[in-house]
Amino acid sequence: MRDRLTLSMRASHLLALVFVAAALALAAIGAASGDTFYLRLGTEALIFAGLALSVDLLLGYSGALSLGQALYFGIGAYVSALTLLKVPSFWLAMAAAGGATLVASIIGGLIANRVRGVYFALITFGLAQVVAKVVYNTRELGASDGMIGIPVIEIGFGPVSVSAGNPVGFFLIVLAIIMGLYGLTAYLLDTPFGRVLTALKANEKRVPFLGYSVWRARMFSYVLAGLIAGLSGALYPMLRGFVSPELMFFATSGNAVISVILGGVGTLIGAIYGSVLLVLLKSIIGSWTEHHLIVIGLIFMVCVMFLPKGLVGFIRPRIEARLLAGARKPVAPSFAPARLEAGSAKP
């Protein structure tokens, strides 16, 4: 069916194709020039884009602000690191991280979804802080120093394998995973489940009268968001070779929220654009001054004041208008009607 949400999703898909094309161009330039710095930086931006994607799923569609989404990102990273230290297998690490974050998000969802609004934000913040403090004081997990020495692994695809130490190859793998998570989320949001989520954000009290369970919808979205964050976090130790408790701190969750606001709340692809923009700004401005957070804060304030819907939120309505105009444009017939000759017989 064609409604506003479907039209918005189609516009987001076009922006996603533009993003993938730009990423592939970056990979080609990096491979040709041999410059690995920006490829590694782009890979890190994509990994944190997965975290921002999970935040936008909750904030942009169900209206729930999570200030502790880094909890599941960090759990995925630590479980992945522990698995890689024992068995250097990409697929086993991803499966273990996914299973651990699935269980953790179910437990966290049972706790956090008992409340709404600002209390939900505070409980998610508290959950992340408690677990981060536990990890920070656990020697078996490296305590405050984190875990180092994560081996460089080979990622097998049947007879072909790609090393995680290959900047171009690993960048393309991370790109495929993050865009796959985006595609899965976009597909689910374009189903009746997505309509239920948007209904929750619009007016939660009326949803039960339509025959849907508010608790189940919120719980499913929370678990899905946690799983997306955990799978994204599982890629981090493969890139950097270490993990630290800082991955669970509020700064990580806060950066994800900022990324979503910069890109556009409720646009989905905007979270990915915003994450890439934020990581690049931190790197570029950080090379000029040690007070880069002040500059980024000013940019964020300007964006909130003059682009309240974010970058993608500013661009997407124009794409939607073009799509809508194209759908309403009459299609010319593929053949011209035969003309009657002057002397032909008439009925």
UniProtKB/TrEMBL annotation:
Keywords: Cell membrane, Membrane, Transmembrane, Transmembrane helix
Main location per the UniProt record: membrane
InterPro entries in the record: ABC_transp_permease, LivM-like
Record-linked Pfam families: BPD_transp_2 (PF02653)
Keyword Iron-sulfur recorded: no
GO cellular component: plasma membrane
GO MF entries: branched-chain amino acid transmembrane transporter activity
Subcellular location: Cell membrane
Membrane topology field: Multi-pass membrane protein
Entry's transmembrane regions: 58-79, 91-112, 118-136, 168-189, 219-236, 256-281, 293-315
Name of protein: Amino acid/amide ABC transporter membrane protein 2, HAAT family
Species, as recorded: Bosea lupini
